[in-house]
């Protein structure tokens, strides 16, 4: 593996002029110094038009999106650098620039997810990696996330956001690192496994979920305060939001209730910055799950181990049908009262919230929206040879079929797919790596691979993508392990007085919008 990485550092752009076709949408990469954009542009709806346009009820499937990655290491320093991309894995009506800046071509509401494969090229570094976003050239407040890198390990650091974007708005992802030993390097790293897709240094997904301005219920909430947990579950409260339309957040400071004014099918994702309190090197596990109307949401629990004051981003996500006035809360617990969700303020960077929650309604409530919320109650042990992940629980399905992890689509379109697996070892005694990627119609999806290192602990590994799907296509998650000691895999557990921790939680939805979203 180390030798492969040394060879890969010699990778360079071997094509300066090429054309890629995605279902009659052409992308032209002119040169390293020019921008990349779709050749076809549609009329963009302005704010004034969104107020006057007459609803037609027509469903629009032609959503804007960007799916990009990089097959080169991106090593950092104490000052922020912009993450760049050398592979456009999917694109429609989005403009990209070689310096890593991305630009919208359509006014609308967008969901973004950044997944950085962090570590040290030779697996000998130790320290932290930070990632945050910049919009229109300025740091986005409260967008920072941090993850610890220990010697010999690599993991995925994620950040997600839902936001209103105007035409030509730019966004970029920045990163910085701090190292314990100044003779070692940290950053976003690449791995080239044999017989698997490449593990890129970055996988970024940005997908349009509605057009116009404030046309669907959506919100992004966060907390600027550290909140410590205990062995009994508690709910996380929120004191700020960066976006809110038609979702009631007036009680989130007091009881954490996110109240939904309108019924519909909603996507919810919580990204918690878990770790130990100030001046503490505590160790233990932090659990994160969701509640609906004060009751635990089944199959929503995830766990992250904290070692000697380390920190990580822990996620829990779902797609769920909600009624008007339903209330959702984010719950957590820990095995050490000095652990919890931790807020901080790095120097010369945006603040790190203790939690960020993004939520939005899919299309509108009257339609048969294709979506799937899936999970598995089975522990599944890996080996060097890849396996398909078995998924035995359908927590919500519509116009998508699941047959034990083989997911078949009844409707064409652009889909967002996210899989979060609970990686652990048998008897907490395993050491090694678990790889996770996607397959479409039996073929590996390029640049979809991610890695989580395990050292007698547990953590969540994320793999996400925007995928163009045809009717009858079949999608499956695959995994493999590279084990130094013991047995590693996807592990399901059932903590006392908490919902099940599935071995995998998978969320899929078709992105489209209805013109009758206009009010």
Any chance you could write out the topology, listing elements then pairs?
Layout (H helix, E strand, L loop, with lengths): L1 H7 L9 E5 L2 E5 L6 E3 L8 H6 L6 E2 L4 E6 L3 E2 L5 E2 L4 E6 L1 E3 L5 E3 L3 E12 L7 E9 L2 E2 L5 E5 L5 E11 L4 E10 L7 E2 L13 E10 L6 E6 L3 E2 L5 E2 L4 E6 L1 E2 L3 H4 L2 E3 L3 E13 L7 E9 L2 E2 L5 E5 L5 E11 L4 E8 L4 E3 L13 E7 L9 E6 L3 E2 L5 E2 L4 E6 L1 E4 L2 E4 L3 E13 L5 E10 L2 E2 L5 E6 L3 E11 L4 E12 L2 E3 L13 E7 L2 E2 L5
Antiparallel strand pairs: 1-2, 2-3, 4-47, 5-8, 5-18, 6-17, 7-16, 9-10, 10-16, 11-15, 11-17, 11-18, 12-13, 12-14, 12-16, 19-22, 19-32, 20-31, 21-30, 23-24, 24-30, 25-29, 25-31, 25-32, 26-27, 26-28, 26-30, 33-36, 33-46, 34-45, 35-44, 37-38, 38-44, 39-43, 39-45, 39-46, 40-41, 40-42, 40-44
């Amino acid at each position: 593996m180390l030798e492969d990485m040394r060879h890969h550092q010699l990778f360079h752009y071997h094509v300066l002029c090429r054309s890629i076709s995605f279902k009659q949408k052409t992308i032209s990469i002119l040169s390293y110094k020019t921008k990349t954009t779709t050749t076809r542009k549609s009329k963009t709806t302005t704010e004034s038009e969104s107020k006057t346009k007459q609803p037609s009820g027509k469903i629009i499937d032609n959503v804007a999106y960007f799916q990009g990655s990089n097959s080169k290491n991106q090593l950092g320093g104490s000052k922020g650098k912009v993450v760049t991309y050398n592979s456009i894995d999917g694109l429609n009506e989005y403009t990209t620039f070689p310096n890593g800046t991305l630009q919208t071509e359509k006014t609308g509401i967008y969901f973004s997810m950044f997944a950085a494969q962090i570590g040290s090229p030779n697996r000998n570094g130790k320290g932290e990696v930070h990632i945050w976003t910049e919009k229109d050239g300025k740091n986005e407040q409260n967008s920072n996330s941090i993850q610890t890198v220990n010697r010999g390990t690599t993991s995925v650091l994620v950040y997600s956001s839902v936001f209103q974007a105007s035409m030509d708005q730019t966004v970029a992802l920045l990163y910085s690192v701090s190292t314990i030993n100044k003779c070692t390097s940290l950053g976003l790293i690449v791995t080239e496994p044999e017989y698997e897709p490449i593990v890129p240094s970055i996988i970024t997904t940005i997908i349009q979920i509605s057009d116009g301005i404030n046309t669907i219920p959506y919100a992004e909430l966060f907390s600027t305060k550290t909140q410590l947990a205990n062995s009994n579950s508690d709910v996380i409260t929120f004191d700020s939001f960066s976006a809110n339309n038609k979702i009631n957040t007036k009680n989130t400071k007091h009881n954490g209730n996110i109240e939904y004014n309108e019924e519909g099918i909603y996507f919810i994702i919580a990204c918690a910055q878990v770790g130990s309190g100030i001046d503490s090197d505590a160790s233990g596990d932090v659990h994160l799950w969701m509640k609906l109307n004060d009751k635990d949401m089944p199959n929503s629990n995830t766990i992250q181990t904290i070692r000697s004051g380390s920190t990580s981003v822990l996620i829990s996500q779902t797609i769920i049908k909600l009624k008007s006035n339903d209330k959702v809360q984010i719950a957590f617990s820990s095995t050490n009262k000095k652990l919890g969700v931790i807020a901080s303020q790095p120097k010369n960077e945006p603040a790190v919230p203790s939690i960020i929650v993004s939520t939005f309604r899919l299309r509108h409530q009257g339609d048969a929206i294709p979506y799937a919320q899936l999970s598995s109650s089975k522990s599944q042990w890996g080996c060097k040879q890849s396996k398909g992940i078995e998924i035995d629980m359908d927590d919500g399905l519509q116009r998508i079929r699941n047959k034990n992890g083989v997911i078949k689509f009844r409707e064409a379109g652009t889909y967002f797919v996210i899989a979060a697996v609970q990686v652990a070892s048998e008897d907490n005694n395993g050491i090694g790596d678990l790889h996770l990627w996607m397959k479409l119609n039996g073929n590996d999806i390029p640049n979809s691979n991610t890695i989580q290192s395990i050292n007698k602990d547990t953590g969540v590994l994320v793999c996400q993508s925007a995928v163009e799907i045809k009717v009858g296509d079949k999608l499956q998650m695959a995994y493999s392990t590279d084990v130094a000691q013991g047995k590693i895999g996807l592990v399901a557990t059932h903590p006392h007085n908490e919902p099940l921790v599935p071995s995998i939680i998978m969320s899929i939805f078709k992105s489209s919008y209805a013109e009758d979203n206009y009010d």
